[in-house]
Amino acid sequence: MSVTPAIETAAPAVPLKVRLGGWGTGLMLLAVWLLLIVATGLYRQDFLSHQTLLAVTFTMAVVGVLAIGQGLVAISGGFIDLSQPANMILASLVAVRLSEAGMPLAVVIVGAILSGMLWGALNAAIVVFARLNPVIVTLATNFIGLAVLFLVFQLAEVPLNSEIYQFGRASFLGLPAIFWPMLALVLIVGLLMPRTRYGRRAIAVGGNKAAAKARGISLKLTRFAIFTIAGGFVGFASVLFAATAGPFNPGSANTLQLNIIAGVILAGISLAGGRGNFWMLLLSVGFLSTIPTSLVFFGLSSDTQSIFQGFILIIAVAIDGWRARKGTP
Amino acid sequence: MLRNTTRAFAVMALSVPAVLGLGGIAEAQDKFKLGMAVGGNTCCEWMKAQGDVARALAEKEGWDYVELSNNNDPATALKNAQIFVQEGAKAVIQFNGQAASNPAISAVMKQAGIPIVTYDIADPGMYFVGIDNLAAGIAGGEGLGKIVKEKWDCNPDLVVSAEGAGAGIVNEWRTGGMRTGLGNICPDIPKEKYVSFESQGDAAVGLPAARDLLAAHPDAKKIAVVGLNDGGVLALINAAEQLGRADDVIGWGQDGAFITGDNVNPHLVGSVFYFLEGYAVYAIRDVIKPIAEGKIPPLKADAGDPASKVQPCPVTAEQAKAVPDMAERVKQLLAAPAGTTEYDLFCPNKG
Fold first, then answer.
1. pTM, whole model, 2 decimals?
2. Number of domains making up chain A
């Protein structure tokens, strides 16, 4: 009888990250999200209902589109755009004024996107041409923007029964109508970023400036374009926000910021730039949007979500730093 | 000789503005100066309007007026109190939604000998001008109760409270008062039907939490909503619309912010007007003007025995159609004889 040593028959050890082909972040997120859903569903079976699905997907819609914009800034090495709240409120105000003027939804959307892009271009001009720190610049433009907005208006709301109001309450295939554009945008951006010249340029600029420059990529133009396009996504998110929020004021978007940044980091989009998969935003934003709903089913106030989000953000930043040190995707 | 003449002329010339300046200072010191600290919470347009009305009334009286914003922040509110002292204000009015700093503000003002009026949130060292929030809550709750009784025979599936914990005791008085008022009309609603969510008094901010609450009560159809203010109540109404459950939702708010104009949500069936933007009429008429005239009124700091009492005005949505929007109300208020309140001018349900 011969005994074959186990060491001879065992498959060669393959690092987990190689076996998962870079999808480890996604699988981890999916597992944690499913765990949350199963745990809440076991605690209260009515959690697994269409109403819960609606509540979560409504929340995902606005946060998801904002996270695309934030992700674009991050992946291109811009770190974080802290002026998203002011940009979104400005674009929402544009959407309200256009809908008050009786403009069709398409015009409202275009107007809001242009407003967002203009804001993004303003940030870009300061960051790129004055060579200032984007975090400080966007923090400052957010302060300035909110203060000016407060001088301009205190409350705004799209007219009841306007097209945009109906859009905010419509559903398609059992999910909110505002959810589908977010889904489409995440899928498209996730598809295009690594597969198009412009997408790869953005990632290259964020990953290694010197190498990107050596390849003839204009750092200034790329950054300018990214900030402007990211502003456009904020502009579109503002349409979804204005369609659903009801009356809003200049401070109404401030609470979204933490969720968006957490969503981007959890999705594995590096704040240092150069790495990230936008499809993961669906999982990270979905997970983060499910937490407050689950808390309510567990009998806790959804107000306590900030505690969980804070911890998750710390863990996500720690993982991001660990990834950067290890050079893992 | 010529040089000395020139010097003398120069000294005289330079003295003129100095003398004029001293005269100006003396005049400014004689002039009554009113300080106003507005709440500075971006949630509500009446906060800014409170300052606008106070400024207009102070100018009518010929007083100097200094306005600062508390930025809805206790530390800023305290700093503002110190600035009013440095500015030489003779009296101060404040709305401080973050009341934690009130005792410190009170101490600063007491040390400087400056009387201070507080709106709606009482402090032992300040003249109280404001509404009886509990009475306003109960009045609103009873208004909603009548509709719940008529529509659902006092048998709703759920009674939702849109809380705003940041407002502290005011939230407890208003939102709790509304539950009490509803209970006065419909005493047999079981306790387990009363649920609440944190709206932060803001329709947009409270919306996700409102959706979550509705998702956690999927079988509830007949839903009555009360809350700290109209904004919080609207958060739940909007959430119900988005989840396809608004058919049987009725809400009654507080503050009247969203019950006037041509964009009123049909599920908001009533509110309680305080006409917050016009509080300065009460403060100036009953406290500040007597002080300016040297007749300092006794300190009445208790909400139950206030220096000046603002009357709540509960209205149904139908009745509110006769009430102009805030900008128009302010315009008419400032054109009215001194001391006339918005309650006198606009409340369709005068008690």
1. 0.82
2. 1
Contact state of B207 with A247 under an 8 Å Cβ cutoff? no
- Indicate the domain borders of chain B: 1-25, 26-131+279-310, 133-273
A-B contacts at Cβ under 8 angstroms: 116
Cβ contacts (< 8 Å) between A159 and chain B: which residues? 263
Q: Each residue of B283-320: pLDDT tens digit?
A: 999 999 999 999 999 999 988 889 999 989 999 999 99
B265's tokens: 């949500």
pLDDT at B28: 53
On the question of a common fold for B26-131+279-310 and B133-273, the answer reads: yes
The answer to whether the beta carbons of residues A150 and A94 sit under 8 Å apart is no
Q: Which domain holds residue A150?
A: 62-257+270-279
Considering the domain boundaries, does residue A321 fall inside one? Answer: no
List the Cα angle A89/A172/A280 in 5-degree steps.
Answer: 65
The DSSP bridge partners found for residue B223 are B158, B249
Answer yes or no: are the C-beta atoms of B97 and B41 closer than 8 Å.
yes
In a domain, A33, yes or no: no
Topology (CATH) of B26-131+279-310:
Rossmann fold (3.40.50)
Q: Which residue's structure tokens are 């275009």?
A: A110
CATH 3.40.50.2300 fits B133-273, yes or no: yes
Name the burial class of residue B251, with classes exposed (0-12), middle (13-18) and buried (19+) by CB atoms within 10 angstroms of its CB: buried
Q: Is the residue at A143 inside a domain? A: yes
Q: What is the Cα–Cα distance from A85 to A75, expressed in whole angstroms?
A: 20
Minimal CA separation from B230 to chain A, in Å: 10
- Amino acid symbol at B116: I
Q: In Å, how far is A289's CA from the nearest CA of chain B?
A: 9
pLDDT tens string A201-242 = 889 988 888 888 888 888 889 999 999 999 999 999 999 999
Residue A117 corresponds to which tokens in the numbers above?
């892009």
**Residue A122 counted as domain residue:** yes
> Rounded to whole angstroms, how far apart are CA atoms A6 and A27?
30
Instruction: Match 């000789």 to its residue by tokens.
Output: B1
Find residues 239-258 of chain B whose CB sits inside 8 Å of chain A.
241-244, 257-258
